[in-house]
Amino acid sequence: MTQxxxxxxxxxxGVVLPKDLLAKLRxxxxxxxxxxxxxxGVELTPYxxxxxxQIDMAEALMRxxxxxxxxxxx
Length: 74
Prior knowledge:
With 74 residues, the protein is an alpha+beta fold. It contains 3 helices and 4 strands; from the N terminus they run E-E-H-E-E-H-H.
């Protein structure tokens, strides 16, 4: 478990993430991370959950219409 401290950043507040946590998230300065509410609390992730849902929907559509897409590719 990593303990984080809330601190003042200009006129706002923020949390400083240690290097090992940044490495686990595979993010660096300037990247965007998302705070997602889960049944177990809040999860930090570099993946946009809305985009992931769109990809899941697209994959289902591609599986469903596999024959049509194969014909279009010819």
